[in-house]
Design brief:
Blueprint (H helix, E strand, L loop, with lengths): L29 H19 L3 H14 L3 H7 L5 H17 L1 H14 L4
Helix pairs in contact: 2-4, 3-4, 4-5
């Protein structure tokens, strides 16, 4: 019987383990282990990068269309409604903090709605 699918969402914490079949060693040498840890660190760093353009798109899509977060998640690569809400709220805070972000979002909104 297959194990149930893991529930995933942005910002979640996961416990990751690696071991070989029959609990055998995974790495042949210390260098193999170090290289694995370098790849893991690289993946973690990539995951921490924010995609400002996508965040603005999510913010404007929700603001302009009024569609639910779940529905918008379907348009943005089948991400969860909660992830959409998190990104929307993050962008709303960024707009409050930064005039540049607020101006950029307003400019994009005008262009999209053909209200130059």
């Amino acid at each position: 019987m297959a194990r149930p699918l893991r529930i995933t969402f942005p910002g979640a914490f996961y416990h990751v383990t690696s071991r070989g079949n029959e609990r055998k060693a995974v790495f042949k040498s210390k260098r193999d282990r170090e290289k694995y840890l370098e790849y893991l660190e690289s993946a973690i760093q990539k995951g921490r990068k924010n995609n400002r353009v996508r965040d603005i798109a999510i913010y404007l899509a929700r603001d302009v269309t009024g569609k639910t977060a779940v529905r918008l998640g379907e348009y943005f690569g089948n991400i969860s409604g909660s992830a959409i809400t998190l990104r929307y709220n993050h962008m709303a805070k960024q707009k409050e903090k930064s005039k540049n972000t607020d101006g950029l979002a307003a400019k994009i909104r005008r262009i999209v709605l053909n209200n130059y």
